[in-house]
Structures are given as structure tokens and as C-alpha cells.
Amino acid sequence: NWPTRLTVLVDNGPGTTSSLVDLRNGMKGLIDALPEGVEMSLYTITPQPRPIVRFTADHEALLKGLILITPDGGAARFLEGLQEAAKRIDADKSDHFPIILMVTTDGPEGSAVRQRDIERLAKQLTDNHVRLHVAMLSLGGMRASANSGVVQVQLGLSFTKMTGGRYENFNVTTRMATLLPEFGQMIASGHLRQA
Predict the structure, then answer these.
(1) Which residues pair with 168 in a beta bridge?
(2) N- to C-terminal Cα distance for the chain?
(3) DSSP one-letter string for 58-115
(4) d(Cα 90, Cα 88) in Å, to the nearest integer?
(5) Which residues contact 146 (CB under 8 A, 6 or more apart)?
(6) What number of CA atoms fall less than 13 Å from residue 23's CA on the CB side?
(7) What is the radius of gyration, based on Cα positions, of the chain?
(8) Residue 23 DSSP label
(9) Strand, helix or coil at 43?
(10) In the Cβ-directed half-sphere of 39, how many Cα atoms lie within 13 Å?
(11) What is the pLDDT of residue 147?
(12) Count of alpha carbons within 13 Å of 188, Cβ hemisphere only?
């Protein structure tokens, strides 16, 4: 009878400014797909990880939180966002099924990337049986440089594979409106199986 706890990390950096409507519509579809009993928290990761809504099963509170997702001009903190979520999961000793969903772009990454931090994060994810899903918007020609996004893509692919999660890369912002509800249905299905 453990609850599923979903942490959603949203990149609200320059790459998502033009897709805010699609992002909010997709997040609404994700929230609507979650069954009763699934707790969700919502964080933005630009210019640093910041809580928008703490864990709750109240869909109204989560929907109100979507309005608080606002664009920021800084670089996203993909790695720091994952570290923050993994640290909170590690500290929470209650019985639950932890899931992280990262909604991000392959734009500039502002985290200081150190090998020891990546190894610690990998250990926290596996020790706590976290499932990580990544929805990655490819900015293509809008990227600041050719190697922009390498960190997010490499870590996203490797951590989703390691945790048995799903990695989706897409290059049209309107895809968010349909992809995020798909993630919600997948999480709902997993929650019902576990229950």
C-alpha cells in the first residue's frame, strides 16, 4: 500500500520560453492522468532548483502551481536538479515508490559537473530504487553552441537506462502537450500494478 511519489523537475530556461503554453498544457494532462493516491511535487531548475509545489495528491494545488512556472534567462541546472531530488528521496525513509520526471532542453547547462557528484547521484538513485524519466526538447539551431546539451543528453540517457526509465527526445515544442500526458498514463499504470 505504498504511495507513488513523483518529483517533476522543469527546465524554465531560455529554451522553454516560447513553449510555456505547450509545457503548461502537457503538465495539466500529466496531472489529470495521475490516479488518486499518487503524490507529486513540482520544481523548476533555472537558475537553480526551486520548489513550486511540495508533495501533494491534491490536483487543484498542482494545477495552481503550473501558473508559477515562469521563464528565466539563466542556464538550467540539470545535474543539480537531479542531485536535489535524489537527496530528498534519500533523506525520506518512509515507504514509497520514488519517480523523477525531468522536463528539460539540451540548452546551456549551469551545473558544475564533477565525476564524484555523478557517482554519488548514481548510487542514490539505485539504492533508493528510483525510476528516472527524461523528456528532452532538442533546441537544434537555437542552441548557444554545438556542444551545448551534451551533459544533459549523456546523463539523461545513462540514468534512464540504469533506472529502467524512459528517455524521449523531441524537437517540436507542441509535442510536450501530448508527451507529458503519456508519461502520466505510464506512471498511473505502474502505480496500479504496484498497488
Answers:
(1) 135
(2) 6
(3) -HHHHHHHHTT----SS-B-HHHHHHHHHHHHHH--SS-EEEEEEEEESS-B-S---H
(4) 5
(5) none
(6) 28
(7) 15
(8) H
(9) strand
(10) 12
(11) 47
(12) 15
Please tell me the predicted confidence (pLDDT) of residue 146: 46
CB 83 within 8 A of CB 45: no
Contact between 60 and 92 under an 8 Å Cβ cutoff? The reply is: no
Note whether 5 and 55 are within 8 A (CB): yes
C-alpha cell at 139: 533546441
Preceding omega of 49 cis (within 30 degrees of 0): no
Whether the model pTM is above 0.85: yes
Beta carbons of 12 and 33 less than 8 angstroms apart: no
Cβ contacts of 141 within 8 Å, gap of 6 or more: none
Please name the residues in contact with 78: beta carbons below 8 A apart, sequence gap of 6 or more: 11, 45, 102, 104, 109, 111, 151, 152, 155, 156
Where the chain has pLDDT below 70, the residues are: 141-149
Query: What is the per-residue pLDDT for 141?
Result: 54
According to DSSP, the residues that pair with 136 across neighbouring strands are 104, 169
Q: For residues 171 and 138, is the Cβ–Cβ distance under 8 A?
A: yes
**What strand order describes the sheet that includes 50-56?**
50-56, 39-44, 4-10, 97-105, 131-137, 167-170
